[in-house]
Structures are given as C-alpha cells and as structure tokens.
Amino acid sequence: MRKWGKWVAEIREPNKRSRIWLGSYSTPVAAARAYDTAVFYLRGPSARLNFPEYVAEKDRLDDMSAASIRKKATEVGARVDAIETGLLSSSSTSHNISCSTASSSSRPMHPDLNEKPIPESSDEVF
User: InterPro entries, per this entry (predicted)?
Assistant: First the structure.
C-alpha cells in the first residue's frame, strides 16, 4: 500500500531484472487479482496464486509479451476494483435497505472476474 492509500501491483519478468507494472488500485483485492493474472500467464498453472479459484485455465493469451500480460492484468484489476469499490460504497450507504440483499443474492458468490460483467436490470424497484 502506498502512503496515499492506493494498492499497487507489479511483477518481475522471469530471468530478467525488469518488472511489469500492473497498476494501482483502490483495494488490495484488485491489486492481488491483477498480480494473480500476470503470474498465471508468466508461470502457468503451477503458479502460486492469492485467489486460485478465480483463474480460468481455459483463458489463454495468444501473445505472451509483457505488454499483453500487463493489459490483461490491468483489465482484471480494474474490473475487480470497480466491483470491490461498488460493494464497499453500496454496503456503507444502503445497509438498511432490505432490497439490496435481494438484488445481490441473484449474483453468484464467487463471480468469474475474467468475464465481462452483465448489466443489472433497470426495472428493479428499490
């Protein structure tokens, strides 16, 4: 965690001294998921991950360059950050609304964060 409150992620390239910058995030989970994505592509299925249940082994990159790995990791990190910060802000502002638990119960407990999010229906009544 940086002193200004952001969580950062980076990883060393195998057999090199250079690092791949994976971004800065509002939540530690987002930074860890970005790291997991990058380490999975660099080291394969035997990589030690923070959240192994979220990595889809079927998801492969055609181009294994540092730029491609950075792009995929930052996409995952940004998506997780959006989900995490959305959950944090909605849980603190609407903890008394009973409908918020009903709408979140239709979502899976462990969503696949490598997939594009499905927009919520706009006809829900709160």
Answer: AP2/ERF_dom, AP2/ERF_dom_sf, DNA-bd_dom_sf
Q: Per residue of the chain (126 residues), what is the pLDDT tens digit?
A: 888 889 999 999 888 989 999 999 999 999 999 999 999 999 888 889 999 888 776 667 777 889 999 999 999 999 999 998 887 666 555 444 433 344 444 455 565 666 666 666 555 554
As given in the structure block, the two tokens for residue 105 are: 């119960």
pTM for the predicted model, two decimal places: 0.65
Q: How many separate domains does the chain show?
A: 1
Segments forming the whole domain that contains residue 23: 7-88
Domain contains 47:
yes
Contacts of residue 106, Cβ cutoff 8 Å, sequence gap at least 6 = none
The answer to whether residue 119 sits within a structural domain is no
